[in-house]
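User: Predict the complex.
Assistant: Input components as received:
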Amino acid sequence: MHELSICQALLRQVTQVAEGRGAGVVESITIEVGPLCGVEPALLATAFGILRAGGCAAQAALVIEETGVTVGCTSCGAQSQAAPNRLTCAACGGFRTRIVAGDELRLRRVELRAPESASVA
Amino acid sequence: MCETCGCAITPEIDYAHSDENVLIEVLQDLLAANDKVAAHNREHFDRHGVLAINLMSSPGAGKTALLEATIMALRDRYRIAVIEGDLETDNDAVRIRAHGVPAIQITTGAACHLDANLVHRALHDLPLAGLDLLFIENVGNLVCPASFDLGQHRNVTLLSATEGDDKPAKYPVIFRASDLVVLSKADLLEVLGDFDPLRAAAALQALGRDTPMIRTAARRVPDIDSWLNWLEVQLGAWRPSAHRPRSMIAASVGG
């Protein structure tokens, strides 16, 4: 369950962004999670539900954008979709590829509540 | 602006949302803080000319036994130390110390992996200046350790003959991140009869890195020559400037 550690890192980053803008309330957090990043989105969502309490993201929604896997062949240069455990080149069958997409584990954006609406609420 | 990959988005750009909330594009890796400490660890290793190897596997694959045999074979030629990661007990560190090399135990408690901070703390108890080779024996686990760069130069994953030969297909992230896969307990292959090394090699090759796989046996009649040869090559080829620049997953992608 390293998703708890990852979620703590996420909340630290979000808190930094919110504090840097002088915002008190985070409305939503969007992250990108690829199948090859080693993190299970459902477990991350569970961890978020537990860890968000008490901070600026206590009521925030977590939006998880799951990406697909794309590999680029180092032999023929072709790019192809791939399964996480089948990362060879679909065009030439080459056994050496690089990951073009699919290993993301990124905080993409944070939505902060506008100061006036925060004061009304 | 490309909505698919964010290619035209500059980090930290604000723009107004319809209800006047503020959207901030961050585009930061969630493991950025860990990776920063890992880079710091790597600088420590580089400065002292220490080759750091992260040893991973499921529990019971024989990491400690392989290290014991390795130390016995190499301790007269290289100065070796070990960082041991376990949830509880310092049993493995005691086993290593019995061979006369320093071993630092990191007890992770409930945590299923080592991270760069835990390793950094352990480094302060190690005589780095007097070392050639540092093994970091990660917590036995084929999932969580794959996500955390520790500052190592090489990743090695053990796959023992008592496990399934389809492990690389089941745990693609950790096996793809590996620079070498060690088929351990290979002396049991014949006894067990159900582990097909060719099938394991095919599953490994399907991960798109053409990672080498070697066989070892560390007990009864030890046979670790191919492993020792690999280590010698790494020690010979390794230069401080050749370190992996980013997190282990990101680095393995280009490697």
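The radius of gyration of chain B is 20 Å.
Let me know if you want any component modeled separately.
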